[in-house]
Design goal:
Layout lengths: L8 E5 L5 H14 L8 H6 L2 H9 L6 E8 L2 E9 L7 E8 L9 H14 L4 E7 L3 H9 L3 E9 L2 E12 L2
Parallel strand pairs: 4-5
Antiparallel strand pairs: 1-2, 2-3, 3-4, 5-7, 6-7
Length: about 170
């Protein structure tokens, strides 16, 4: 369990200046839960600094939101969202919380609450795609009010595997 009892959780947008922290957390994410992200560790390790800077800068763009969860200066989680098409609502992406900050620390809930606030200003629905075998993530989404839309997609890294589309009405 994380050290949240004595520390303040900071949730904020990422900026280009955060590229190194964003890179380090992304490498942790892909190593920890390889089925959760459309990128292999080998591919992620090849990404140049200019691309990491661009990825981090998306957190502060008008059409997207990238958040970092920070405890004692350490990046312990992230979530992002963007609007893929006008009037289509937002898509939740890049969801991750470090293992020692999962389960009752409030990090994932705090991140998702901020994403939902942002998404509500852009539409009435928040959509996500989760690997069918990522049961921990699916349970979190169900607890937060997401339901299976009935749509499945081939997993980008292995078309024999599937991702499940889940949606939440934002009201």
């Amino acid at each position: 369990m994380g050290r949240m009892h004595h520390s303040e959780l900071i949730i904020r947008r990422t900026t280009e200046a955060d590229w190194a922290e964003a890179r380090d957390l992304r490498l942790e994410m892909v190593r920890d839960t390889p089925i959760a992200f459309g990128e292999t560790i080998e591919t992620a390790l090849e990404v140049p600094e200019t691309d990491w800077r661009m990825r981090a800068a998306r957190g502060s763009a008008a059409s997207s939101l990238g958040l970092a969860a920070i405890v004692d200066g350490r990046w312990v989680g992230t979530m992002g969202a963007y609007v893929p098409e006008p009037n289509g609502g937002a898509l939740l992406v890049g969801v991750y919380v470090s293992p020692d900050f999962r389960g009752g620390t409030g990090v994932a809930d705090a991140l998702l609450t901020r994403i939902e606030e942002w998404a509500r200003e852009r539409g009435s629905i928040l959509t996500l795609h989760v690997h069918s075998e990522n049961t921990r993530a699916r349970a979190f989404y169900v607890r937060r009010g997401f339901v299976d839309s009935g749509v499945t997609l081939p997993y980008v890294l292995n078309p024999d595997e599937t991702e499940i589309e889940m949606i939440k009405q934002l009201g």
